[in-house]
Amino acid sequence: MEKETYTSERKINDLKRVIEKAVYGEDVSKYDIALMLNATGDEELNTIFTAADEVRRRYVGDEIHFRGIVEFSNYCRQNCLYCGLRKDNGKLERYRMSPDEIIASARRIKEANISTIVLQSGEDYSFHRKKICEIVDRIKAETGLIITLSLGERSYEDYLAFKKAGADRYLLKHETSSRLIHEQLRPGASFANRIKCLHWLKQLGYEVGTGIMVGLPFQDENSLAEDIIFMKKISADMLGIGPFIPHPETPLAECKNGDVNMVLKVIAVARLITKTTNIPATTALGALNPALRVKALCAGANVIMPDFTPREYKELYDIYPGKTNKNCNADNLMPLLKETIGSIGRVVG
Ligand code: 5AD
Ligand code: SF4
């Protein structure tokens, strides 16, 4: 018994020491990060979440920023084993929004007093360079919104043209920084190419978002620690960190949901290590349980991304179960969130 008390006391002291190192910006090793990710029990978890919340307050303040998402096409040329949009999912009805429909959604975002639009789709090359540039140009001219694109891997020339047309930010999650896991779960895709895309985007002056799923097959604390180091190294501006949620029409249907405490720990440690990044309380967390969004906001997150995709399409952007349910869409989410934000002492950005 005595031995046990000693061990848990020592563990929490080790944890506090590593957190302090991270808070003061000292070098934190992969093993230090894995130690934080191995925290268990209320006391250890609260120690990490409270420290991350404090760092969040100090470096990015109490504002919560909203980004309006428009999912304008669910076609995808890729076949990621985890995703409901994968090209081999023949059961999914596919859609593409017209440019006019996309602009109308952008206007709704503007009317909701949100300053950033995130245009997201599967890797759908029928939205070719010129078409995306025209859409970006029209959104800028007609709404003045800050534009984040999230269209997957494209050519350098495409990224350059989108930037010239007025795109400000690009979101491309690396999903996992383990090349082996990455390539196993994304058949035909190359990890090196994804990283090359991220470097191009940085070079071109985009604000870059990257991120991961937590709970993928073969992932463990060590690979998650490497993910966090990767996020720091690439000096991303934004980090999307959410649970993996198995989709029934994919080869990973029989897997388990990502562990939500692990997601919260990764968010918290990413905040401790990267300090000034924007970190959303991801839709995937909210899809598992709306209360988890609030938990994420109290463990380092500072962004929320309500979905402004028109109702008739939203249901079809079925990446993972729960994604299309009502509590993720803007009409239901916005009033609820504004209330919650005040109750946790935060303000709308
Ligand atoms: N569970 C959670 N997130 C997923 N994504 C894809 N499939 C899943 C899933 N089953 C995320 C990936 C991708 C984004 C479009 O959705 O991180 O970047
Ligand atoms: Fe396509 Fe992205 Fe889904 Fe992979 S995760 S199948 S690239 S939409």
Model description:
This protein has 14 helices and 9 strands. With 349 residues, it is of the alpha/beta class. The strands form 2 sheets. Strands 2-3-4-5-6-7 form a 6-stranded parallel β-sheet. Strands 8-1-9 form a 3-stranded parallel β-sheet, with helices on one face. Helix 9 links the parallel strand 6 and strand 7. The longest helix has 22 residues. The N and C termini lie far apart (50 Å). The model has no long low-confidence stretch (mean pLDDT 95). It binds 5'-deoxyadenosine and iron/sulfur cluster (SF4). 5'-deoxyadenosine binds next to loops. 5'-deoxyadenosine (5AD) binds next to loops.
Class inferred from helices and paired strands: alpha/beta
Assess the beta-strand content as a share of residues: 5-15%
What characteristic shape results from the CA principal axes?
globular
- Kindly state the number of beta strands: 9
Concise overview:
This protein is of the alpha/beta class.
Give the helix/strand layout.
Elements: H1 2-23, H2 30-37, H3 41-60, E1 63-66, E2 68-73, H4 99-111, E3 116-121, H5 129-143, E4 146-150, H6 156-165, E5 169-171, H7 179-185, H8 191-203, E6 207-214, H9 221-233, E7 238-243, H10 260-274, H11 283-288, H12 290-297, E8 303-304, H13 311-314, H14 330-343, E9 347-348
Parallel strand pairs: 1-8, 1-9, 2-3, 3-4, 4-5, 5-6, 6-7
Bound molecules: 5'-deoxyadenosine and iron/sulfur cluster.
Spell out the key features of this protein.
14 helices; globular; six-stranded parallel sheet; binds iron/sulfur cluster
